[in-house]
Amino acid sequence: MGRMHADEHAIDTELVRRLVDGQFPQWADLPIRPLASGGTVHAVYRLGDGLTVRLPLTAGGAGDVAKERRALSALAGLPVAVPAVVAVGEPAEGYPWPWAVHSWLDGEPAREGRAAPARDLAGFVRALQALPADGPPTRRGKPLPDVDSPTRQAIEELRGTDEPFDAEAALAVWAEALEAPQWTGPPRRLHADLMPGNLLLRDGRLTGVIDWATAGVGDPAIDLIPAWNLLTADTRRTFRDAVGADDATWARARGRALSMAVIQLPYYRLTNPVISANARYVLTELGCRPVP
């Protein structure tokens, strides 16, 4: 994993050790080790066997600590486990932002293109959407036209790289999504970042969902993106039927998946192999990359 952001703060095991020991001496005897992750907003470290330390990489992610704490406090009755915020740390040791300690959840992160429990995933999405939701749409729950300009800009940026990529096919998917009726129902509760790495599996079942920093309310289409960033053609229909998506929501979900992929790929293609590989998978599943 390379340096992903120009304003990324340097974080290493020694810094995390000093932060933990200085603010939470009850954990001073627990080992700390970096956790392999494709995440783009936080550095994540394992603290002993039962905890993780999450530290924002940039100032833009600093507010996620409080947002994630609020989001996790509002979840109850989901069919899968979610982490608990065990403690929140303060800036110190030259590190300038709040950081958090979460409970550890066992499980293997899902991987695109591999067997995945489509019905479990649909059950989780339906259960999440059934929770009370109020207030205006949050960033990823806003209407699709709100991201029209950055999506088109990213398509053009990607067109200028050496990626095998069909820009015209991408624009066609995007146009179809924009032409679909927009969400006019009440806001639904959203995770809004259901990337494979945030979905934990055990024995072939979905058992946990992590990284709730972008959770909010709004258009439910955003939480259907695993249909293209995780599932295969064989299981995509099962997921759609089980989640009960109508044609308009499905079209908007395709647009959301496309938008995230084309924005991620030019930005992370040289620094984050996990995210860039997933973006390529999405574009292939949407028919926007040449098939060998």
Topology:
Blueprint: H1 13-23, E1 32-34, E2 42-47, E3 51-56, H2 64-73, E4 85-89, E5 99-103, E6 108-109, H3 118-129, H4 148-159, H5 167-179, E7 188-190, E8 199-202, E9 205-209, E10 216-218, H6 226-229, H7 233-243, H8 247-268, H9 273-285
Antiparallel strand pairs: 1-2, 2-3, 3-5, 4-5, 6-8, 7-10, 8-9
Helix pairs in contact: 3-7, 4-5, 4-8, 5-8, 8-9
The radius of gyration is 19 Å
Assign an overall shape: globular
Largest sheet: 5 strands, antiparallel
Q: Strand order of the main beta sheet, please?
A: 1-2-3-5-4
> How far apart lie the N and C ends?
27 Å
Number of strand elements: 10
CATH topology of the largest domain: Aminoglycoside 3'-phosphotransferase, Chain: A, domain 2
Low-confidence stretches: none
Count of separate DSSP helical elements: 9
Tell me the name of the CATH class of the largest domain.
Alpha Beta
Question: What is the CATH architecture descriptor of the largest domain?
Answer: Alpha-Beta Complex
Structural category: alpha+beta
Number of spatially distinct domains: 2
Provide mean pLDDT, rounded.
Answer: 94
State the CATH superfamily name of the largest domain.
Answer: Aminoglycoside phosphotransferase (APH), C-terminal lobe
Q: State the share of residues found in helices, binned by percent.
A: 25-40%
Task: Kindly estimate the percentage of residues that lie in beta strands according to DSSP.
Answer: 5-15%
